[in-house]
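ARCHIVE CARD
CATEGORY: sequence design from structure
SOURCE FIELD: tokenized fold
FIELD CONTENT:
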């Protein structure tokens, strides 16, 4: 019989451990550490994400029950209090940089060859308990935000940042890296003329929405194709000031494409692309829904709803490891052509996390055969 490593062991092989060790040394993460290395911490947190554990107790208990197999992974069981201390004190930047390293590998493998990259930008709120002073929003409420850029074609996050919930989306967006060849699609949370001007100056295509009270100055109409969802197509300029007191630095022409949704709502789409067909602009904005689906999937299948620590560092570490888990699951699923659904693959990994099965042989467990009452009586009689 052919030998197989555990499912967890096979997934850990996707981690670039040489680069991990260099990051540990660079950040001095293992200096003066006696009981638990940063690798032990990372393996424990990744196990928690892939197994569905929702607490430190579940993680440490699950690892302790598989101590023998952990030895072959180069890791070992950890204590709950030690893991909590590590999450609070080990540098979160290390795990963010590890995410970026794995992303470079995953992006090449997952991305289809297309002429242009479509980036979706949005944020999602994360509720924290009231002890999280760094993220306090009001007297009784504390929360954080995860700001994300998603490559729509690869369905892969390419950048993330964590801030307190009180930080505006546009404030976080101004720190995001910009790909001059990309198209950026975002909603009203990123309504800032100066940021748009910066994207435009770098050659990016932007697709967003007008606010209801923003007029298009000196418009002239373009022809509208018959039989499409496009109601009108106009080119003009933005107002000279934003919010009545800031001079508008975005002086180039912009385009307004009005479309009707399936529910009858009329959207005024904004873009700096003056040449593409109006329907192409409308279709690009529709793709923004993909990032909402991504947030929903991550919240339902990875552990960023219940946090293992209340400190800012612990929250950042947990989110980084959750996104690393998403990347390695995507890479692992790419090798399993028989399982197309990310949700199904994630469930199979969770069910078989410490079983010795090849990743490309994972199957939904078959239910045990059901005995009818007469057969059951005979089985009991012959005990």
């Amino acid at each position: 019989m052919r030998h197989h490593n555990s499912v967890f062991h096979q997934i850990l092989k996707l981690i670039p451990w040489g680069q991990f060790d260099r990051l540990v040394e660079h950040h001095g993460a293992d200096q003066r550490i006696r009981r638990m290395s940063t690798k032990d911490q990372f393996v424990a947190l990744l196990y928690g994400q892939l197994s569905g554990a929702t607490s430190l107790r579940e993680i440490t208990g699950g690892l302790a029950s598989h101590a023998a197999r952990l030895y072959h992974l180069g890791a070992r069981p950890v204590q709950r209090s030690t893991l909590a201390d590590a999450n609070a004190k080990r540098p979160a930047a290390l795990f963010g940089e590890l995410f970026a390293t794995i992303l470079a590998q995953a992006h090449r493998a997952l991305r289809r060859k297309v002429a242009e990259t479509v980036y979706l930008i949005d944020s999602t709120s994360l509720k924290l308990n009231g002890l999280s002073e760094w993220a306090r929003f009001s007297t009784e409420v504390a929360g954080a935000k995860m700001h994300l850029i998603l490559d729509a074609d690869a369905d892969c996050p390419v950048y993330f940042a964590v801030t307190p919930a009180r930080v505006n989306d546009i404030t976080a967006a101004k720190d995001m890296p910009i790909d001059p060849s990309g198209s950026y699609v975002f909603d009203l949370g990123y309504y800032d003329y100066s940021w748009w001007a910066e994207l435009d100056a770098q050659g990016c295509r932007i697709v967003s929405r007008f606010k209801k009270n923003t007029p298009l100055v000196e418009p002239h109409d373009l022809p509208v194709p018959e039989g499409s969802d496009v109601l009108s197509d106009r080119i003009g300029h933005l107002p000279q000031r934003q919010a009545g007191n800031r001079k508008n630095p975005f002086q180039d022409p912009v385009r307004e494409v009005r479309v009707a949704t399936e529910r009858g709502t009329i959207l005024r789409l904004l873009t700096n692309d003056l040449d593409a067909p109006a329907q192409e602009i409308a279709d690009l904005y529709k793709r923004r829904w993909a990032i909402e689906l991504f947030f929903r999937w991550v919240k339902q299948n990875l552990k960023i709803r219940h946090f293992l620590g209340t400190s800012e560092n612990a929250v950042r570490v947990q989110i980084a490891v959750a996104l690393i888990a998403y990347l390695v699951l995507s890479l692992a699923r790419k090798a399993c052509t028989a399982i197309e659904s990310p949700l199904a693959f994630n469930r199979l990994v969770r069910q078989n996390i410490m079983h010795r099965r090849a990743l490309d042989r994972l199957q939904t467990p078959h239910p045990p055969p059901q005995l009818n009452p007469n057969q059951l009586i005979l089985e009991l009689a012959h005990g």
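CARD ANNOTATION: The mean pLDDT is 87. The chain is about 40% helix and 20% strand.
SHELF: design records, drawer C
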